[in-house]
Request: fold
Amino acid sequence: MFQPRPIGSVSSPYKQSSEVPKGLGAKHEAAGVLRILPEFEAGLTDIEGFSHLIVLWEFDRSQGFDLLGTPPSDNRPHGVFATRSPRRPNPIGLTVVELLRREGADLHVRGVDMLDATTILDIKPYLSSIPSENLRRGWLAEAEKRKGNS
Amino acid sequence: MFQPRPIGSVSSPYKQSSEVPKGLGAKHEAAGVLRILPEFEAGLTDIEGFSHLIVLWEFDRSQGFDLLGTPPSDNRPHGVFATRSPRRPNPIGLTVVELLRREGADLHVRGVDMLDATTILDIKPYLSSIPSENLRRGWLAEAEKRKGNS
Reply:
């Protein structure tokens, strides 16, 4: 298999995991910067045209994985592949951010939920959405309903 | 950095890259199966509740990367991070699929664009969408417009 390499790192207001908004209704509005390494700057050509980007990054402060875990948004355990838990067989995180502006190799974005200095693996343009009326959200929708009823 | 490990592989109708629909207006409606390794099956618990999944996988038949490349949907070059090119610094692909049903460790899905036997790295629930009216799609929208005008 390939050997991952950093393409840059995140400048984020969050220094510790406990500071990142989590659980039901958590909003990710924090501004941050995706600092791409100079040798990859040419790979950003034309990225300014996209309003939203998909960022893949390493859960670099997480060790090991659990196949079942109880997420902050529920009090019941779920399979790791049905959650966004950091404790995954491959510790790859995914965040959709809004691109505010580019300054050279720095992408100023809104919506970071990564810790400061997180290693970035890849950036892809966000091209299309599943209409929300077509989405089913499983245990998360059920947890929201239970919370609303309590 | 972490060392990637397979969590399963894709069963896809596409044996070669040339068979995968590409370019403007390409539709990904192909049915396929995400065959998860038995040791990770417990990680699928409760995944049935989600209509759509994000699949991360390895571009395992791609070697090396280009910072600039001309995608099938345009005749102009763009930065690799503004495209879905397989020739990326970290060869990680991302596909959103519709989950049709689960049979044990096999997820039957619609919307595969991976080659047969592609290595799966991760599966995450698709939780929310950016409303399409809020999306700007850069060079891709321009390429579509030029095509419509020609």
Q: What stands out?
A: The beta strands of chain A are 8-11, 31-36, 52-58, 68-69, 78-79, 92-103, 106-110, 119-125. Chain A touches chain B through 64 residues (CB under 8 Å).
